[in-house]
Design goal:
Elements (H helix, E strand, L loop, with lengths): L7 H12 L6 E4 L6 E3 L2 E4 L4 H4 L12 H10 L5
Parallel strand pairs: 1-3
Antiparallel strand pairs: 2-3
Length: about 80
């Protein structure tokens, strides 16, 4: 997660608000946020997405070549 016009903490807070308590497992890779686990939300500096992607329903990423290629290799819808 890069610094932009919206602060990483704001993005993470909104994701938690949107997905907390749902049946989805949410993994957020963000170097600017302290690692934590809260119910179905997992935040850390990095995750091995090659292990998570095969079970993924949707993959929201920043559009880097590696992120896009990982999603394409596993046929996961990306945004």
């Amino acid at each position: 997660m890069d610094y932009g016009t919206i602060k990483p903490r704001t993005v993470v807070d909104n994701l938690i608000k949107a997905f907390e308590g749902t049946d989805f497992q949410i993994y957020i890779a963000a170097e600017q946020i302290n690692p934590c686990e809260k119910n179905n939300i997992y935040i850390d500096k990095r995750f091995d997405f090659s292990k998570l992607i095969p079970e993924t329903v949707a993959y929201i990423n920043r559009g880097s070549q590696n992120s896009i290629m990982t999603g394409l290799m596993y046929g996961v819808p990306q945004k």
